[in-house]
């Protein structure tokens, strides 16, 4: 029997993100001071440096542009050994310049992929209650 796939362990700050993901919604933390998104959120806003950012999670489109990628051919995590090779993409989301997210490209490692390709958020159901954000081709420009 193979090892189970690792699953996120939410804390008080990340719980809204993972709850939204379980509903197949990409929701990101927005600073209550400057209105910029922060991914991941921290104790201070990375944009305005507010120490009391009052982050609130808001749904976003999940559409973006591929900035870079890598093909993972070996996994140090036993729960992912049977899933290699797979592609991790670095995506700049449409909602904000410089807002980048890394996720698995679900279209497979043999898909033709170029910097600048458009993608959209999708979700991998890891368990009945846990879904992990990922990407697929087709994020038409907004």
TrEMBL record:
Domain ChsH2 C-terminal OB-fold, first and last residues per copy: 57-124
InterPro entries in alphabetical order: ChsH2_C, NA-bd_OB-fold, Thioester_dehydratase-like
Xref: Gene3D superfamilies: 6.10.30.10
PANTHER family per the UniProt record, alphabetical: BLR3430 PROTEIN
Protein's name in the database: OB-fold domain-containing protein
Organism: Streptomyces endophyticus
Organism classification: Bacteria, Bacillati, Actinomycetota, Actinomycetes, Kitasatosporales
């Amino acid at each position: 029997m193979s090892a189970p796939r690792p699953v996120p362990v939410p804390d008080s700050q990340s719980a809204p993100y993972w709850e939204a993901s379980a509903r197949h919604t990409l929701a990101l933390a927005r600073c209550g001071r400057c209105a910029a998104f922060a991914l991941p959120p921290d104790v201070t806003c990375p944009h305005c440096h507010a120490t009391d950012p009052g982050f609130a999670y808001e749904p976003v489109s999940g559409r973006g542009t591929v900035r870079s990628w890598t093909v993972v051919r070996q996994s140090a995590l036993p729960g992912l050994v049977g899933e290699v090779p797979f592609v991790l993409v670095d995506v700049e989301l449409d909602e904000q310049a410089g807002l980048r997210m890394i996720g698995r490209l679900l279209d497979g490692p043999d898909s033709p992929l170029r910097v600048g390709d458009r993608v959209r958020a999708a979700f991998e159901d890891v368990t009945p209650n846990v879904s992990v954000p990922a990407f697929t081709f087709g994020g038409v420009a907004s």
